[in-house]
Design brief:
This protein is of the alpha/beta class. The protein is built from eleven helices and six strands.
């Protein structure tokens, strides 16, 4: 429990996203243990199970999560989605799940997930924010390893749900998990997961500091963007244009060119454009 961060979570209720796998089941178990501690301030723990409608075993998996909730004294609810098979299935399922769960649900990601995410983000061309990867505010198990969540399940007599997609080589994360990280461990002669997770934490602290500095820049002022250090100007633009996802690097650079009077306007995706009139930038939808 000392490597979990439940104490940093505000509010009387802990809402846990529980798929039924070892990580999310351990999240629920440890959340209940945290609530039972004297002076925790937590009055309730609930599990939300999302059924994507992709597997015939979905109802049985929901029933297993419900049984675990009964054992632990946690509340239980299930949300049904209608997600069609097809391209980018894992990414679409993740986005649909997060949208259904809302911004406050706790997620059972571990240090192993963090290491995988760092590598995946780098493969997609990310920089500092890619290294920062997942933040701990909704992920109280980032200090634990995947083997430890399996052990938590053993201790309470729970048999985790096994998602076959986690071993499917069609998905990048699966290959990073089962091929890339073991290879890196072999090359380094040590377990690289703690190294990647530690580097992620340091990058997150650096990124947060830069965001504080960038917050002083008005992204609608062309002169402020031109005169600011470019690393801060880029972050100010990213924060300004961010929707569900931040704009890509080429979009940010095009907006900088508008601020530098190289261009009058540029498209920034999602049917939006940034235009300049005199010294002011305007986001048009």
């Amino acid at each position: 429990m000392d490597r979990c961060t439940f104490d940093d979570i505000e509010g009387p209720e802990l809402v846990c996203a529980v798929s039924g796998g070892a990580d999310s089941a351990a999240l629920l178990v440890l959340a209940c243990r945290s609530a039972q501690r004297s002076g925790s301030g937590i009055t309730a723990v609930s599990a939300v199970h999302v059924d994507h409608g992709l597997r015939e075993a979905g109802r049985a998996e929901a029933a297993r999560v419900e049984a675990l909730c009964l054992q632990l004294g946690a509340r239980f609810s299930v949300m049904h989605l209608d997600l069609a098979p097809g391209a980018n299935l894992q990414a679409r399922a993740r986005e649909a799940r997060h949208a259904a769960l809302g911004p406050d649900a706790l997620l059972g990601h571990t240090a192993d997930d963090q290491a995988e995410t760092v590598l995946l983000q780098l493969l997609r061309g990310g920089a500092l924010d890619a290294l920062a990867a997942m933040r701990a505010d909704r992920r109280p198990l980032l200090g634990l390893r995947r083997a430890e969540t399996e052990r938590v399940c053993e201790l309470v007599g729970y048999e985790p749900v096994r998602d076959p997609s986690n071993a499917d080589p069609r998905f990048w994360r699966s290959r990073v998990r089962h091929e890339v990280i073991p290879l890196l461990c072999d090359i380094a002669g040590r377990d690289v997961v703690p190294l990647l997770a530690r580097g992620s934490g340091l990058a997150a602290a650096d990124a947060d500091f830069l965001d504080v500095l960038a917050a002083d820049i008005d992204p609608t002022s062309a002169s402020e963007l031109r005169n600011a250090p470019v690393v801060l100007a880029r972050r100010a633009i990213r924060a300004w244009l961010r929707t569900d996802h931040p704009p890509d690097a080429s979009t940010v650079e095009r907006v900088l060119e508008v601020a530098r009077h190289t261009h009058r306007a540029t498209e920034v995706g999602g049917g939006r454009r940034v235009s300049r009139s005199a010294d002011r930038l305007r986001l048009e939808c």
